[in-house]
Description:
The strands form 5 sheets. A 7-stranded mixed sheet has the order 8-7-16-17-18-15-19. By secondary structure, the protein is α/β, with parallel strands linked by helices. The chain is 37% helix and 22% strand.
Amino acid sequence: MEKKKIKIAILGGGISALTAAFQLEKSGYSAVIFEQNSEPGGSMITRNEEGYLLDFGPNSGLETTPLIAEIVNEIGMADEMVYANEKGNKRYILKNGKLIPLPMSPAAFFKTPLFSARAKFRLLAEPFIKRSHDGYYQSIADFVRRRLGTEFLDYAINPFVSGVFAGDPEKLSVKSAFPKLYALEENYGGLIKGTLMGARERKKRKEVAKQSAKMFSFRNGMQSMAKRLAEYLSSEIKTGTEIEYVRKSEEKFEVIYRKDGQSASEFFDLIISAIPAYDAGRIFQFGDEDFDRHCSQVYYPPVAVLYLGFRKNRIAQPLDGFGFLIPTKEKKDFLGAIWSSVLFENRAPEDYESFTLFIGGAQKPEILDQDDENLIANTVAEFKKIMKIDSDPEFVKIRRWEKAIPQYNLGYIEHERYFESFENNNPGVFLSGNFRGGISVGDCFKNSSLTASRVLEYINKISKPTEN
Ligand SMILES: Cc1cc2nc3c(=O)[nH]c(=O)nc-3n(C[C@H](O)[C@H](O)[C@H](O)COP(=O)(O)OP(=O)(O)OC[C@H]3O[C@@H](n4cnc5c(N)ncnc54)[C@H](O)[C@@H]3O)c2cc1C
């Protein structure tokens, strides 16, 4: 087959799909991208309402790889990329109803009221705790309890896990969900030793650890980047096109889709799937029931995102940070809040502040059984108390995600191994997206670039060079 005649389909129009297309185009290949929504971006959805800029999905990313700046520069968005206000380095944790800054230096750690003297002393034992085995079957909670102690789990890791995955630390696999953290123990024997030594290696790879990476967004929100990337691509983007299923037909893959109420189909030589696992399971009809089973077992808990706008002068809590996270032990209805208008400009009208609150997730999915009215009333009451606000919000908007973020729970490795074998058994199919290799926006950039490299290798293997 001639190289440049290879027809590539990309399923989904989120950041994973768009990045894969971008990387393939750099090598001279264009693709057809199928997206069911009317616009590209996937979970990146930004709206402007009453002077508030609302990111329904990711509100920022961490610049963990130079790849992000490369793409942003190339699509001409460098001057629209914004970095979070330095105040954002300060993060609060709720303890006994009060907001306590998360200590960011050894000196602050020894002074903080967040942990007892006993818990701080316990940390000194960390370098002497032996390695564990097979973190795929060890939860992040067990890992942290063993290495750092229970208080550290309850008031640092538990809220952190809520903030990133909206996940349950007792269920998330430490090695699948936090591979870099587990690697510190696996490779260096401990977290403290590993953090110090790993920094040198990251410097060599020009990578930045998540905890020191700069937080970025765009002046007009995260979706503005996805939209610009989509405009930049020469690949055809079929929005408003729902893929019904994909089947194998001799050497080709047939994508059957619906657009404007009509069914149609097209043939491709290879397929990159960048849709969520639960959709992929249904769509790939390759006579393999295990595929659907594995895909549907990847749990995506529901999350609601609540936006609140208050007048600045009604908020007594000093707004000098990123926001706060709530440990499960504090028994609140929501998981935490980002102080959106403090982090980035252009998020709220003048004289107002905007906040983004997260509710539900893997630990409290049932809280979302309430209707919007109750959910909002209960959450607003708790939020006002914590933030010492003496008026009702002037702006309220809720957005529910029925299936928000894939959880790399205990047993996830069985799915991952299966996905690898599925790809090996079906040459020409590449499974990408945030249910593989990390859920953050930065991870999606990295993993889709790796997927594009795998695709190029495959093309080289199956084709002969283009004849002039
Ligand atoms: C509420 C929320 C907050 C988040 N906050 C952050 C954050 O602050 N920072 C961060 O780094 N990450 C965050 N994330 C995670 C991050 O946004 C996602 O992991 C990432 O955007 C996923 O990109 P993706 O392209 O892999 O998948 P998606 O964005 O899910 O894209 C998949 C696309 O496939 C399409 N699709 C599905 N089925 C079909 C079909 N049958 N036919 C056609 N198209 C189909 C969907 O419409 C969708 O557009 C957040 C996620 C959520 C939900």
